[in-house]
Each structure stands twice: as structure tokens, then as C-alpha cells.
Amino acid sequence: MVAAILIFFLVGMLPTVGTLVFLKKTGRISDWGMSKREERYTLSIVGLFSFLVVYVLLLPIRTTPLGMVAELLAVGGTLFALITRFWKISAHAAAAELFFLFAADYFNFPWFWSIIAIVLICWSRWYRKRHTLWQLIGGIILSWGIWMVWGIN
């Protein structure tokens, strides 16, 4: 399991976060949240590729929580990268929703707190004018769709 966690962080998270830091330091993105849809392409491709590799490497442990998270990130990342080419949706809303769906289903995390957290995350993204209501709803719908097809149910 330690090897799987190392794979997850070294192959998935490190290249993705490293790319984000590089893009910000070189001025290729205007803010950490990548408010402009056009700025998201490079990070989407790096994240997509990284988590697809993680998914393939973790296939032998697919039924463990870490393997399931890798699969959900690979699927979600693929769909997010495709959608971002045409329309800006909220990655924060999508990722948070997918996390709380996973936590509620797999670890019996209370739905009440999940809903509160999603509402607060969406409100903060809307209040800071990072997303429109439809972009937030799009992120939530994306996560629900992924969960209905690939979820643990």
C-alpha cells in the first residue's frame, strides 16, 4: 500500500502541482485558480496524462480506496479536459462533489456535511466571481454523472 501511495503522489500529484507552479512562475497563468478557460489546457493535459498513468499502475489494486480514487480521477480528468476545450466548468465544484460522493458512499461520511461543504465551496467560487451559476452546476453534474457510471454503489 505504501508503494501505491507513493505512485499516487509522485506520478499523479507531483507532475500536476509542479506544472501549476511552473505555469504561475512563468506568467502563463494569471492566477492560481486559472480563471481563464484558455489557461487550463496545459494543466488539464498534464493532469490527465499523470492520472491515467497512475490508474494503469494501480490497476492491480483497483478495488482498494486508493485504486478507486485513481480511477475516478482518470475518468473525471479525461472528461474535464474535454469539456474545458469548449466550456469552462468549475473544477473545484466537480472535484469536491466527487470527493464527497466517494466519502459518503465508501466511508459512510454524513450526507448533511457533504451538502454543506459543496454549498460553501460553490458559494465561494460564485462570490469571488470565478464562476457563473451554470459553470458550478456543470461541475456538479459532471461529478454526479461520473459517480452514476463509475461509482461504487
Strand content: under 5%
- Radius of gyration (CA) equals 15 Å
Give the proportion of residues in helices.
Answer: over 70%
- Give the CA-CA distance, first to last residue: 23 Å
Shape: globular
Low-confidence spans: none
Task: Describe what this molecule looks like in 3D.
The chain has 153 residues and is mostly helical. 74% of the residues lie in helices and 0% in strands. It has six helices and no strands. It has helices at 2-25, 41-57, 65-84, 91-107, 111-127, 133-150. The radius of gyration is 15 Å and the shape is globular. 30% of the residues are buried. The mean pLDDT is 86.
Q: Which key features would you list for this structure?
A:
about 150 residues
Put the structure in a nutshell.
The chain has helices at about 1-25, 40-55, 65-85, 90-105, 110-125, 135-150. The protein has about 150 residues and is mainly α. The protein is globular and about 40 Å long.
Layout of helices and strands:
Layout: H1 2-25, H2 41-57, H3 65-84, H4 91-107, H5 111-127, H6 133-150
